[in-house]
Write a structure and sequence with these properties.
Length: 225
Amino acid sequence: MSTNNTYYVDMKQRFIDVQNGKVNPRNLSPMVYDTNNVSLALRQLSKSGGRMAVGPDGTNFQTLTEHSIDELAEIVKFRLINKKMDYVRRTYIPKSNGSEELRPLGVSSAYDKLTEKSICLVIESFYENVAVGSSFAFREQVSTHNGLAKLKLAASSMPVIVSLDLKNYFGTLDPNIMYRELWHIGMKDQIILNYIFRFIKKGYIEDSVYHEDLFGVPQGSLCYM
């Protein structure tokens, strides 16, 4: 795990504590809204390319800077415990492959982004403990360059390479399966699990119309903003 954020939270030590059973998996919520954890979440959001995108409630990263860290921690605590979240605003952006096809992008409120990032920083320590060595997606200590290097090495001895792409993966997440899988890797805090369950089931707003999306969440959401 990266140690670049030790000013706020020592993520490497958090990973080790989870690995050694020093973290109570049934009482993780206080870690989410801890001021140091929220500070790190705010710092990471400040580097996000979409930080100034306006959410459905008219908020963006600038809105968060108008609060103190203590106030933001209380906001995260309230939203997490009460499963308070806003619908996302759906927009469409060009695909990176150069085609004319557009892909959906969900823009959350600034408060949702902060809450989700704060949760992500806690659950990262759990799925890092079960991640396989060939996984390079959405992990802090590895990159696409590591994946390409491993692929290049494997290609020198393997006659066939199979490339697969899961269409609309994030739009087909089943909240029941996600709940079960998070529990399986050690995430047993009911408050966090119930928040994520509801998050996946929440709908989105497009052209001022609400759409119910029971088994999906628009692209660019939890942990991936």
